[in-house]
Design goal:
alpha/beta; 6-stranded parallel sheet; Rossmann fold; 13 strands
Length: 364
Amino acid sequence: MKKIGIDARLLNQTGVGTYIQNLLFYLDQHKSLDNLYYVYLLKKDFNHINFKSSNIIKKKADFHWHSFSEQLNFLSVLLGDNLDLVHFTYFTFPVLYRKKFILTVHDMTPILFKTGQASTRNPLIYQIKHFIFKIVFFAGLKNSIKVIVPTKTVKKQILSYYGKDFKDKIEVIYEGVSYYLLQKNKEKINKKEFPYKNFFLYVGNFYPHKNVENLIEAFSKIEGDYQLILIAPDDFFTKRLEKKLKKKEIKRVFILKNVGKNQMVWFYRNCLALVHPSLSEGFGLTLMEAAYFGKPVIASKIDVFEELWGKNYLSFNPKDPTDIRSKIEYFLEKKPNFSYEKLLRKYSFEKMTHKTLELYHKLV
């Protein structure tokens, strides 16, 4: 049997974590695994995930991304396991690893959006950090045997930035709706705790490129008994936005932190629409999740959303709060309907996993 490593250290991070969770879930569902899979996990995640298949082996790799221990200790572990192929599921990896590996690049945001606002560190440390990002990113493109991206848009961005030499190396494999939302979860909602109605929904973090402040500015000028619910992790950027909302005394906008999976089902089912004002995305998982629950999508007019959604969403200029406001008001007045059945059949994490497995087999 060949030995294939899967880097799952970011298992519980937003976005990337959803990708890894679904890859591992559908890998474990596979009826006949003819290779051994070594899954590398942080210590805190090790006992929270188990596999039915005896061909999937958990390995502790308590080395955080963007760290010296990743570059030295994780490298040593990988070399010691003598793998035939490694799948690094995020762009950071031990740059001195020279055996066969695949890299997943979820988006080009860390490269294209160079802004110190996205870091909690001082400007000089941020500049150094960003420089190292670029070195690691390029090393991954250069030394990998294949690069997986979630959309054609990300592929085009890579080729535009780094040149067409990588064209044949990049594989577009679309993502989809997370398995736990596809399961029949019961809604566990305390209606006294969540007394929301007539609300628009945003799900994600509050990094600067997510452009949430423009959405808040637009929504604050909309008349009527409507609410905006922002669901996000409890981190530095969330705390910073909470302070701004309090200082500006903006009403009808509510930030909810670390909402559980079953509670998310309730918010998707009961929102008027999902609003996503991001300036940069690699795929846009939350848009697909809203579509699964039959909810209209109002989102930025950016290349990746136009690739995936075509005319099946209401688009706005994300840099113009006035346009964001007008599109939300248009939605409230016209109540446009969109059909997402074809999109949901086309984009699937199960299909993604099967195509990724096909790539593994081809390369080993």
